[in-house]
Amino acid sequence: MLDHGAPPQSPQPSAGARLMRRKPVERLVAESGRGEGGSLRRSLGLWQLTMISIGATLGTGIFVVLGEAVPDAGPAVTLSFVIAGLTALFSALSYAELAGTIPVSGSSYSYAYATMGELIAWICGWCLILEYGVSVAAVAVGWGEYLNELLDGTIGVTIPAALSAPPGDGGIFNLPALLVVLLAMAFLLGGARESARANTIMVVVKIAALLLFCVIGVMGFRSGNYENFMPLGMAGVSAAGATLFFSYIGFDAASTAGEEAKNAQRDLPRAIMLSLLIVTALYVLVAAVAVGARPWQRFDGSEAALAGIMKEVTGDAFWGTLLAAGAVIAIASVVLTVLYGQTRILFAMSRDGLVPKAFSRVHAKTGTPRVNTVIVSLFCGVLAAAVPLGQLADATSIGTLFAFALVNVAVVVLRRTRPDMPRTFRLPLSPLLPALGFLFCVWMMSSLDVVTWVVFGIWMAVGLVLYFGYGYRRSRLATSGTS
């Protein structure tokens, strides 16, 4: 018997529609700062946000990856830095517009959620977990070699290879890498303002260390080292650029602090662009001096290449030791700020219901996601202690490039779907510049080796299994009935 008094049933959205469900910008902003059991605190100004981005970026490529990139490109490694920087710049312009328009935690994950739907947002967030989490581990691996340089130059002892290198690099367990991650965790648990203050001090120290290297390195500069500028052709330059893109990971870290910035819409775009310009200028300068002071054939993949050049130029171990001390501080600041970004991305994903609620639980006293920070730190620390640097760096680069490509798409989509939305920064020549950013990202991804693509494919497959097994049904959009 028909019940004519029953209200008509609204049609259920198709599976495809549920995968493309979007979270409106207004809802993202309204929910900003709120976690399970508390809220994040707005305590960061333009200076702190810029230092977070510089802290997350500057040092990684110069102190750690430069020695691996020079054998691929030769003296043209400076050009590789410029190409990687241009790729980052196009994406940075897109980040700057979206950060000023959608001032929330979660970075490109949140931007994708508002523009391209939940499945794409999950894929982007999963790439960011690869970008931030694995880059923390990669940078921590390089920290151990500089720590040994410092210990050798000061007290004449070093940590045994078995305890200072991961399996595959001649060791059993990289203890220093684990220790620097745990040290960063301790700072983060103290609160965003306190960790930002510590990071600012470390950023000033590492900029001073790099400028000192340039001053001393110029004394050993030999123009003959540049005679055969591109010995391995453009393919070598491109391959080195893809590896060195790892050096630019972190300029977007300020966008993960959208819910802890005092004036996010004004300060986030400025912090992103300012940090990228400072970092690129320093990278090119230091790379040019390094190759001028040491023939490119003598770069052997050592993570402590700059300290070695200082010793060669001066003939005095003191200067190499001093640079190693700067590198120890510099790399520690990268670990601190990138680890911060990772926790805030998971915070946003947890608040949306795509990962467990524990990741968005905020401690009442410090205003930080404490459980989130501990879990992420332990995971990254163990990863750093057990996996070689080269494999980590390339895996990080491909995840970052994929996420950046999506950001360039997102800014165009939001321009089309919400053209009248207030924007504190508008990137010029849209959609041309976002298209160039997208194409540069795809080009650099194609330069990475097959093994890196296989690892990336496995990572994405695992991510999709987790999404359909957990997030698809538990997301807040799903449970609230919003499509």
From TrEMBL:
One of its GO terms (cellular component) is membrane. It is found in: Membrane. It holds the Pfam family AA_permease_2. InterPro entries: AA/rel_permease1, AA_transporter. Keywords: Membrane, Transmembrane, Transmembrane helix. The keyword Transmembrane applies. It is a multi-pass membrane protein. The chain crosses the membrane at residues 44-66, 78-98, 119-143, 172-191, 203-223, 229-251, 272-297, 317-341, 371-389, 395-414, 426-445, 451-470. GO terms for molecular function: amino acid transmembrane transporter activity. PANTHER family: CATIONIC AMINO ACID TRANSPORT INTEGRAL MEMBRANE PROTEIN ROCE-RELATED (PTHR43243:SF24), INNER MEMBRANE TRANSPORTER YGJI-RELATED (PTHR43243). This is Amino acid transporter. It comes from Streptomyces ruber.
